[in-house]
Design a protein that fits this description.
The chain is an alpha+beta fold and 347 residues long. The chain contains 15 helices and 14 strands.
């Protein structure tokens, strides 16, 4: 804690070259405002350790959900000291940038949101209940501290982003065993574990079970690796594409090359006919949307008088359409799953 106080003092000393006390807070940057408030010493020390002071003194604008010293004190013993070590700088920066939203988002705008994208890349959940606002699991205790380069909202807990990559997040959920086995057989686990970011439309184990008997077993054979990889790549989009952005754009190009079309039918959101069961599950390197049907690449067009069967799902007793009609999602209620940050929405 001595090092923490020294770091906070160093930040405060660096900020002494500011305007007189009579200058309004709106004329001072975010870091200066936080330091002079006196209740963000730990945050200031963390910003210094993460090399983010200069960034948050820049033009911005930024919206910062600022944990108080008491909020940092709630972390498990030793957590803060560990995060402040130089070797943990990347992890610290990931946490701090999760508290920062691009733009100048005042309280009147925050309460209209259900989520907000952070500088970290992941999104924070926003909920309003009985006049109180929560950002993830933190309560907003003070709002609209205006700064020259943005605004500060004070929160009573440190909020934490997901630190698990896409395969680890899927594994922790427990309902994607077939998908993970397929990714391993196709040699795609390393790609899905990389920096990304990637968006994965993840079929559940039940979705794979809906395929014709023997299809999964056939695709998992080494000689069908290329076919399997093509199918799986159809489920992956480059970048973080959250559900709201997907529905607004109405389509996204997959890594396989095929286009995924997003529609809403009778209040149910679908992608190429597959129902979106849960959306916006944050991972450290992207986002996962859960679907109830396996997507299949469109079969190559062949001029022939003979009936054509999809080459990727052999052996199959019947033709499988590219846009399989899936059953209506069991529920479209919003759900938050601790750890995997699972959500469902009513569309």
């Amino acid at each position: 804690m001595l090092n923490l106080r020294l770091m906070a003092a160093a930040v405060a000393a660096a900020m002494t070259v500011v305007a007189p006390l009579s200058v309004r807070a709106a004329e001072k940057d975010i870091v200066t405002t936080a330091v002079e408030a006196g209740s963000f010493k730990t945050l200031a020390a963390a910003l210094t350790a993460g090399g983010l002071v200069e960034t948050l003194q820049g033009p911005g604008p930024f919206t910062v959900f600022a944990p108080t010293d008491e909020a940092f004190a709630k972390l498990p013993a030793g957590t803060l000291d560990t995060l402040l070590k130089p070797e943990n700088k990347a992890l610290l920066v990931g946490i701090l940038t999760y508290h920062v939203v691009p733009g100048n988002v005042l309280a009147a705008d925050v309460v209209k949101l259900k989520a907000a994208g952070t500088v970290n890349g992941q999104r924070v959940d926003i909920a309003v209940k009985d006049g109180s606002v929560k950002v993830d699991d933190a309560n907003v205790v003070k709002t609209d501290i205006l700064c020259s380069n943005g605004v500060i909202h004070v929160i009573d807990a440190v909020i934490l982003p997901s630190t698990k990559n896409i395969p680890a997040t899927a594994d922790a959920a427990g309902s994607f065993k077939t998908l993970l086995a397929a990714a391993a057989a196709a040699g795609l686990v390393d790609a899905l574990s990389g920096d990304g970011p990637l968006t994965v439309f993840a079929p559940t184990d039940e979705a794979f079970a809906k395929l014709p008997k023997g299809t999964v077993e056939s695709l998992l054979k080494p000689e069908n690796k290329a076919k399997l990889a093509e199918i799986l790549k159809l489920h992956v989009v480059s970048g973080r594409v959250f559900s709201t952005d997907l529905l607004q754009a109405k389509e996204a190009k997959s890594l396989q090359g095929g286009v995924l079309h997003a529609t809403v039918v009778d209040g149910v959101a679908k992608v190429n006919g597959a129902g979106l069961v849960a959306t916006d599950i944050d991972a450290s390197n992207g986002v996962i949307h859960v679907i109830d049907t396996v997507l299949l690449p469109a079969p190559a067009k062949v001029v022939s008088s003979e009936p054509q069967h999809h080459p990727l799902v052999s052996p199959a007793p019947h033709h499988v359409e590219h846009r399989a009609v899936s059953p209506t999602c069991r529920s479209q209620q919003r759900v938050v799953h601790q750890g995997s940050r699972m959500r469902r929405h009513r569309w």
